[in-house]
Automatic annotation (TrEMBL):
Keywords: Signal. The lineage of its organism: Eukaryota, Metazoa, Ecdysozoa, Arthropoda, Crustacea. Residues 82-200 form the C-type lectin domain. InterPro entries: C-type_lectin-like, C-type_lectin-like/link_sf, Ca-Dep_Lectins_ImmuneDev, CTDL_fold. Residues 1-28 form the signal peptide. This is C-type lectin-like 37. It comes from the Eukaryota. Pfam families: Lectin_C (PF00059). CDD domains: CLECT.
Length: 202
C-alpha cells in the first residue's frame, strides 16, 4: 500500500469515527428530550389529579349549599323552618286578637307547634327583641277550661301550676302565652295583654 493510500484509509477511518460520535451524541440528546417529556407528563398528571380533587370538593360544597338553601326555602318568606314546621316571630306587642289577625293575614295562624322546645330554640335567637313571653294560638274562650289549638287539638302540656284558670268578671285568662323559661312554658293569661307573637304557616 502506498503512502497516499494509507493516508486516505486513515482519513476514511477518522470520518467514520466522527460520524459514529455524532450519531451517539444525537441519540443521547434524544434520550434527554424523552426523559424531560416524561417528567413533564408526570408533573402534568399530578397537577391534573390535584385539580380534579379540588373541583370535586367544590362540586360537593356547591351541592350541600344548594341542599341548605333548598331546605331553608321550604318555608315561604318570612317564615323560618324549625324541624318540619314554619314560624314567623314578630316583636310588636299586640293583643291576642290582633296577633291572630296578623298571622291569618300572612296565610297562617298563631303558632300551634308540635315541638315546643324546638320553637324555644328559635325564640332564644330573638330574646333581645321579644323579652320574655309570646302569644301562642290556643284559647278556651269558646268553652271555659277546654283549651284547643287552632287545628282543634287539645293543649296537653302546661307550665308548672298552670292553667291557673282565673275566670272572674275582671280577670279572664282565656288566651295562651309561651314563656321563654324552659320549665314554665305554657300559661293562660288575659287576652288583652300586649306581647310579641309567633305565627305558623300550615
Ligand atoms: Ca279560661
Ligand atoms: Ca295563668
Amino acid at each position: 500500500m502506498s503512502k497516499g493510500q494509507v493516508t486516505m484509509v486513515h482519513g476514511l477511518l477518522i470520518a467514520l469515527l466522527l460520524s459514529c460520535l455524532t450519531v451517539s451524541t444525537v441519540v443521547t440528546e434524544d434520550n434527554d428530550v424523552i426523559h424531560e417529556m416524561r417528567s413533564t407528563m408526570v408533573v402534568s398528571q399530578l397537577m391534573l389529579a390535584e385539580q380534579t380533587a379540588v373541583l370535586q370538593e367544590l362540586l360537593n360544597a356547591s351541592r350541600s349549599t344548594l341542599r341548605f338553601f333548598a331546605e331553608e326555602s321550604s318555608c315561604p318568606y318570612p317564615y323560618k323552618k324549625v324541624l318540619d314546621e314554619c314560624f314567623y316571630v314578630c316583636g310588636k306587642k299586640v293583643t291576642f286578637d290582633q296577633a291572630r289577625q296578623h298571622c291569618q293575614g300572612m296565610a297562617g295562624d298563631l303558632a300551634h307547634p308540635k315541638h315546643l322546645h324546638a320553637l324555644l330554640s328559635l325564640l332564644f335567637e330573638y330574646e333581645q327583641i321579644i323579652g320574655g313571653n309570646v302569644w301562642m294560638g290556643a284559647t278556651d274562650s269558646h268553652q271555659e277550661n277546654t283549651w284547643l289549638w287552632p287545628d282543634g287539638s287539645p293543649v296537653l302540656k302546661w307550665g308548672r301550676g298552670e292553667p291557673s284558670r282565673l275566670n272572674s268578671a275582671s280577670v279572664k285568662e282565656d288566651c295562651l302565652e309561651l314563656r321563654l323559661e324552659t320549665n314554665m312554658l305554657l300559661n293562660d293569661v288575659i287576652c288583652t295583654k300586649k306581647m310579641p307573637f309567633v305565627c305558623q304557616h300550615p
